[in-house]
C-alpha cells in the first residue's frame, strides 16, 4: 500500500513518521516536495519507493541530478507512461511525448518557431510591454484598495502565449477566453487532486458518466472545440508568404513535409496537442513566478526599495524597460532569481523515466523506473546555500554587486528535457516585474494574516490566494 496510503494509526507506527516528528515536522500536513526532501535527509539523495507497481526513484541533490539528466541523458530522458496522461495527451505534444525522433523533430521545430517570433529577442518586447500596460491600467483602477492579482496576471501571461501561437490577444473581459483559462486550471486540478487519479490504476474509470470523470471529459471536449476552431480559421485564411504566428508556421511546415515524407509526424492533430502544451507549460509557471515576486516584495520592503532605486537609476519613471537594461540591473535580477530559488514553481520537475537499465552512483536502476528530480530540495540544500530558508537576493551577487551565475540554480531543469520556454519565461519575468515595480509599491493590507509561504502543490507550486495593495509611485 505504501506509507501514504496507510491508515493514520499505522502511519504513526512507521519509522518515517517517528523520524519526522522527531525533527519537529507534521507529516500529514506536508506538501509532496517537503515530504520527499525530508525523506532524502533520512534515506539519502537517491531513494526509491513504489506507487502501485511503479518504482519511483527520487534524486535530491544537484550532482546526482546532473549525472542522470546530463551525463546519462540518453537513458534518463523518457517520460513515464501514466494511463491518465496517455488518455489525455495521446502521447503527443512535447511535454509528455516519449523521448525519440518524433519528440526531437517536434521540439526542434517548435523551439525554432517561437524564436522566429521573438522568444528571447528584442522583437517580442513591445508585445510584452503592451500587455503589461493593460495590467497596470487594471491595477490602477483599484486605486490603493486591496485586490487579488491572480486573474489580471494570469490573463496577461496567457495573452503572450496567445499572441505567439494564435496571433491574437483576448480582452480581459472576453468571457469565452476566461472560460478557457478556467477550464485549463480546473482540468489540471481535477487530474492531480481528485478520484480521477484512480484512472492510473484502472483506465476504464475515465469513461464513468458522473463526478470528476464526466467533468474532465467535458473540459477536454470544450478545449478541443475552442482550439480546433482556431486551427480551422488559420487553415482557411493561411497566407503562405506572410505567416503570422505559430499555427501558420506549423501548417506551412506540415504541407512542406507532406510533399517529401508521407510518414511525417507533422499533422493537425499533433499541432493541437503542442498548443495545449504551450498553454499549460507556459501560463501557470510564469503566472505563479510573478505572483510570488509581488508577494515577496510586499513582505520585504527593504528589498523592494533597493529594486525601486535600481529601476530609478537605470530606467527612470517614463521609459519602458528593455532587455538591454538587464546588464545594468544585477540587484533586480538577483531578486527575481532569489524568489525563484525559494519558491521553485515546478518543485518536482516533470517526471522522467529510464529507457534502459543503468547504474547511478552505484545503485542499479531498472528500465522503466520513474525518476523524480527534486528541484525543491536542490534549491534548499544546506550544503550549498547558506541559510537556505532566508530570502536574501545578495547571495546571487559578488563583492562588487555583480551577478553571479550559479550552475546549481536550475529552476528550469537541465539536460535534454530542459524547459523549452526558458528564454521566454526569463524575458517575461524581467520585463513584467520591472514594468510593475516601476509604477507601483506593493504592500499587504494591514488587516491581512501573515501569508502562508509553503505554496499549494499542483503541477506548479502556486502561492495561496492573497490580496495586495498597489500604490502608485
Ligand atoms: C518561470 C517559468 C517556467 C519554469 C520555472 C519552467 C520550468 C520547467 C521545468 C522544471 C520543466 C521540466 C524539465 C524536465 O523535464 O527536466 C519544464 C518543461 C517544459 N517547459 Fe517550462 N517552465 C517555465 C515556463 C515555460 C514557458 C513560458 C513555456 C512555453 C513557451 C514552457 C514550456 C515548457 C515545455 C514545452 C516543457 C517540456 C520540455 C520537454 O519535455 O521536452 N515553460 N519547464
From TrEMBL:
EC numbers, comma separated: 1.14.14.-
Q: Which InterPro entries match?
A: Cyt_P450, Cyt_P450_CS, Cyt_P450_E_grp-I, Cyt_P450_E_grp-I_CYP2D-like, Cyt_P450_sf, Cytochrome_P450_fam2
- The protein in question is named Cytochrome P450
Its domain of life? Eukaryota
ATP-binding in keyword set: no
Classification via Gene3D superfamilies: Cytochrome P450 (1.10.630.10)
What role does it play?
Cytochromes P450 are a group of heme-thiolate monooxygenases. In liver microsomes, this enzyme is involved in an NADPH-dependent electron transport pathway. It oxidizes a variety of structurally unrelated compounds, including steroids, fatty acids, and xenobiotics.
Q: What is the lineage of its organism?
A: Eukaryota, Metazoa, Chordata, Craniata, Vertebrata
Which UniProt keywords are present, listed alphabetically?
A: Heme, Iron, Membrane, Metal-binding, Monooxygenase, Oxidoreductase
Cofactor(s) annotated in UniProt:
heme
Compartments, record wording: Endoplasmic reticulum membrane; Microsome membrane; Membrane
- Native organism is Echinops telfairi (Lesser hedgehog tenrec)
The family annotation for this protein states:
Belongs to the cytochrome P450 family.
Q: Which PROSITE patterns match?
A: CYTOCHROME_P450 (PS00086)
Class in the EC hierarchy, top level? oxidoreductase
One protein family per Pfam? p450
State the gene name recorded for this protein.
LOC101641516
Amino acid at each position: 500500500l505504501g506509507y501514504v496510503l496507510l491508515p493514520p494509526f499505522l502511519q504513526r507506527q512507521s519509522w518515517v513518521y517517528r523520524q519526522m516528528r522527531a525533527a519537529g515536522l507534521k507529516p500529514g500536513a506536508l506538501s509532496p516536495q517537503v515530504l520527499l526532501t525530508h525523506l532524502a535527509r533520512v534515506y539519502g539523495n537517491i531513494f526509491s519507493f513504489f506507487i502501485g507497481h511503479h518504482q519511483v526513484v527520487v534524486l535530491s541533490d544537484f550532482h546526482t541530478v546532473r549525472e542522470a539528466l546530463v551525463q546519462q541523458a540518453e537513458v534518463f530522458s523518457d517520460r513515464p507512461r501514466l494511463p491518465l496522461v496517455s488518455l489525455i495527451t495521446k502521447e503527443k505534444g512535447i511535454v509528455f511525448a516519449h523521448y525519440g525522433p518524433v519528440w526531437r523533430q517536434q521540439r526542434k521545430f517548435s523551439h525554432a518557431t517561437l524564436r522566429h517570433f521573438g522568444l528571447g529577442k528584442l522583437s517580442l518586447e513591445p508585445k510584452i510591454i503592451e500587455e503589461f500596460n493593460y495590467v497596470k491600467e487594471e491595477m490602477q483602477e483599484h486605486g490603493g484598495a486591496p485586490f487579488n492579482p491572480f486573474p489580471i496576471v494570469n490573463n496577461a501571461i496567457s495573452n503572450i502565449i496567445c499572441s505567439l501561437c494564435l496571433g491574437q490577444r483576448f480582452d480581459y473581459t472576453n468571457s469565452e477566453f476566461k472560460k478557457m483559462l478556467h477550464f485549463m486550471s480546473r482540468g489540471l486540478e481535477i487530474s492531480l487532486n481528485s478520484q480521477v487519479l484512480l484512472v492510473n490504476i484502472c483506465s476504464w474509470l475515465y469513461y464513468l458518466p458522473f463526478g470528476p470523470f464526466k467533468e474532465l471529459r467535458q473540459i477536454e471536449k470544450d478545449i478541443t472545440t475552442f482550439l480546433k476552431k482556431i486551427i480551422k480559421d488559420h487553415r482557411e485564411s493561411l497566407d503562405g508568404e506572410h505567416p503570422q504566428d505559430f499555427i501558420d508556421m506549423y501548417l506551412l511546415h506540415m504541407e512542406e513535409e507532406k510533399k517529401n515524407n508521407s510518414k511525417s509526424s507533422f499533422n493537425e492533430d499533433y499541432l493541437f496537442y503542442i498548443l495545449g502544451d504551450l498553454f499549460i507549460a507556459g501560463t501557470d509557471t510564469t503566472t505563479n513566478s510573478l505572483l510570488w515576486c509581488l508577494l515577496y516584495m510586499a513582505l520585504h520592503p527593504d528589498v523592494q526599495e533597493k529594486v525601486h532605486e535600481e529601476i530609478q537609476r537605470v530606467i527612470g519613471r517614463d521609459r519602458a524597460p528593455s532587455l538591454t537594461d538587464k546588464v545594468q540591473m544585477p540587484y533586480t535580477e538577483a531578486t527575481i532569481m532569489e524568489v525563484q530559488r525559494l519558491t521553485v514553481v515546478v518543485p518536482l520537475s516533470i517526471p522522467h523515466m529510464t529507457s534502459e537499465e543503468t547504474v547511478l552512483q552505484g545503485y542499479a536502476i531498472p528500465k522503466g523506473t520513474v525518476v523524480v528530480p527534486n528541484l525543491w530540495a536542490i534549491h534548499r540544500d544546506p550544503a550549498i546555500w547558506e541559510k537556505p530558508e532566508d530570502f536574501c537576493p545578495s547571495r546571487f551577487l559578488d563583492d562588487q554587486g555583480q551577478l553571479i551565475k550559479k550552475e546549481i540554480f536550475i529552476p528550469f531543469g537541465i539536460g535534454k528535457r530542459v524547459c523549452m520556454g526558458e528564454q521566454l519565461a526569463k524575458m517575461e519575468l524581467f520585463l513584467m516585474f520591472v514594468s510593475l515595480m516601476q509604477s507601483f509599491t506593493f504592500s499587504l493590507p494591514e488587516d491581512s494574516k501573515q501569508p502562508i509561504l509553503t505554496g499549494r502543490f499542483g503541477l506548479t507550486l502556486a502561492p495561496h490566494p492573497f490580496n495586495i495593495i498597489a500604490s502608485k509611485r
